[in-house]
Amino acid sequence: MAMSQAALKVEKVLGHGDNATTAQDITNPSKDNAGDPSDKMKALAWMGKGKVEIVEALKPKVMENRDVIVKVTGSTVCGSDLHLLHGAVVELEKGDILGHEFCGIVDEVGSEVTNLKKGQRVVASFQIACGDCYYCKQKLSSQCEKTNSNTLENAMYGGRTAGMFGYSHFTGGFAGGQAEYTRVPYGDVNLLSLPDNVPDEQGLFLSDVLATSWHAVVDTGVKKGDVVAIWGAGPIGQMAADFSILNGASRVIMVDSNWRLDYVKSKYPNIETLDYSALGKGESVTSKLKELTNNRGPDISIECAAGEYAKGWAHYFEMLLGLETDTSEIVNEMITSTRNFGSCGITGVYVGFTNHFNIGSLMERGIRLIGNGQAPVHKYWDSLLKMIQDGQIEPLKMVSHRVRLEDLDKVYYKFENKEDGMQKVYVETRFSAPAAKGSPGLTTY
Ligand SMILES: NC(=O)c1ccc[n+]([C@@H]2O[C@H](COP(=O)([O-])OP(=O)(O)OC[C@H]3O[C@@H](n4cnc5c(N)ncnc54)[C@H](O)[C@@H]3O)[C@@H](O)[C@H]2O)c1
Ligand SMILES: [Zn+2]
Ligand SMILES: [Zn+2]
């Protein structure tokens, strides 16, 4: 039995906590009496390790008074979805609808929602927050205490995150936004209204990428003049590079091993790149970064890759044998590369435990290692929206393709294999408006 399913069984035995104030485990409206029997929709569902499919499901209905049903006009795929596809994140069930980044049009509102009306354009945050618990009051929405009652997460981590859309039963079990409709619990706080001058193709990315990258930069502490190194040149890494410069970094060096580094160079000529697959004999990422920075190392290092991507055989086998869930290679590289008393932030997803962690270098050289956490979107999305309106940030820079929801299963595999120059995609549905200016043309598969 795959670990993902074993974990789900354990959680079923343990039972849920009693902290959640919104219904748990509604990952597909066709189950659990959560759909409207008279209306159907298309959605992307997880069908087992390595397998996703476009399925037909019932349109979700209002179940709680603060629910909003959103008619989805834009969705996308995140590096985090690959961790679900690979079964690295536990507790998925066959048929679970994925997707945690989406925008659309308000279709229906529950009786207690007074700030949104049918027809309004909105974007959802990837996390589901209640709006008034200890963390929500501080806008630390990703750590809401009232939307996820998973006991396994609580036991493993000593605390829980908020519930999340399309991100397994481990985070509450909520149907996601890679669908034609999505139910948004606490819709009055988890939806941000989009103004007319911000098209979906820009506003969509307020769900996750923009807030996550911004948080990675400010939470790790990038200051004016800093040299910043970033591991992972995917969409999150690219925006983190962009935002490091906006926050005053004097230099940004991106570490990865594929064509994305060329993509970065074409969009950001002033960003330096380090291809670890092209290192010479006796060279390492750390030795190369020292060489580039007066032998001292970057002031700040940010992890935008993930713990499931082992580089060497040792960690590959340890993970395969269940001796660890995540590799420590990238974090160790960050620690040894960073200058003494510098800071390292981890934004890429790590699930559980790791071996061979270089605690000595961390302690002796005074490295500050920061778990950036799931990013608290509500803390940043108003100001990021304003920055889009002012032209300070351009989310379309990272978007490589526009695709259709009905092709999304094929897109997952292309995104996974980094084929066709694919990175951030804009997924349109039958409800989308024609492509906005600057958006790539439609690719069908
Ligand atoms: N903390 C949060 O709130 C949050 C939110 C969104 C995404 N994430 C996570 O951020 C990470 C990046 O997301 P993305 O959408 O850009 O993903 P992505 O999969 O598109 O990009 C990841 C990049 O990391 C690179 N990489 C893999 N191993 C590497 C290594 N050893 N050294 C350097 N680079 C390496 C890959 O080649 C790839 O280009 C993912 O783990 C994702 O789950 C976190
Ligand atoms: Zn994401
Ligand atoms: Zn809350």
From TrEMBL:
Keywords: Metal-binding, Oxidoreductase, Zinc. Residues 19-31 have a biased composition (Polar residues). Residues 66-188 form the Alcohol dehydrogenase-like N-terminal domain. GO terms for molecular function: oxidoreductase activity; zinc ion binding. Pfam families: ADH_N. Residues 19-40 are annotated as: Disordered. Its cofactor is Zn(2+). InterPro entries: ADH-like_N, ADH_Zn_CS, GroES-like_sf, NAD(P)-bd_dom_sf. SUPFAM superfamilies: GroES-like, NAD(P)-binding Rossmann-fold domains. This is S-glutathione dehydrogenase. It comes from Aaosphaeria arxii CBS 175.79. The lineage of its organism: Eukaryota, Fungi, Dikarya, Ascomycota, Pezizomycotina.
